[in-house]
Structures are given as structure tokens and as C-alpha cells.
Design brief:
about 35% strand; 4-stranded antiparallel β-sheet; OB fold (Dihydrolipoamide Acetyltransferase, E2P); about 150 residues; mainly beta
Amino acid sequence: MENKQINALITKFDESGLSKIKISRDGFEIEMEKATGLVAAPVAVAAAPLAAPVAVAPVATEAASTAEYTGDAILSPMVGTFYASPSPDSPAFAKVGDTIKKGQVVAILEAMKIMNELEAEFDCKITEVLVKDGQAVEYDMPIYAVEKI
């Protein structure tokens, strides 16, 4: 498999909803996982180019999600890693009992080594933190249980 094909595969995997994938074909094997970062590690490279397109099959993943939450919540807008504070030595952006204003930063979500600030979309009061610091989160996963104000 050529570098161009591998890069295209990585891009398609990144855009997909999959969190882990493993492909084996004609002596070539590649495995990627999003939860711990993007990993593309060819185990053996075949010298012959592939004539047919590579079929991508999802691999079963370990569930990193929390229990289903019903009620008002601040949801993750992307797949990434949740950080409750700007640095390990800093206090959390939001704790249980805090009143949050619309536009206030409540967390940082890391995706592909880029730190993205998560801002509240409405005024609310934090009633529960549903994920742990450093935990991988999925798209639309509840991060904070809240009461709208």
C-alpha cells in the first residue's frame, strides 16, 4: 500500500464515526484507534500495489460511554479527550453547584492535538459532572448534567 493510499485511509477513518479499525490484506496490516490518539502502524508492507479498493470493516470497540442521561445537559460537540481545567495545576472550569453563563468556557476538548474550548450554549447550574478528566468522549455525549436558568 502506498503512502497516498494510507493517508487517504487515515483521512476517511478520521471523518468516520468509528473509534477503532483493523485492516488486513495481502500481507499488509494496519490498525487505528481514536480514543488514544490516531495510530497508524503498518505491521508488514506488501510490495505489490493493490488493484482493488480496500474494504473497511469496523472492529468492536470497548464502550467508553457513561450511562444514558435524560434531562438537560451540556453535550460534547466532537470526538476527543475531555479536560476539566486548562492545566493540571489549575482549578476546574466548572464544578457541581457552579452557575454558568452562556458563552462561558466549561471544558477543553482535545482532538488531534488541538485544544478546543467548550462554551456553554445557555445559562445553567451544574448538577453533575458525567465524565472524568482525561476521559475520551464521543459526539453528542453528555458531559455535564445541568439545570437551565
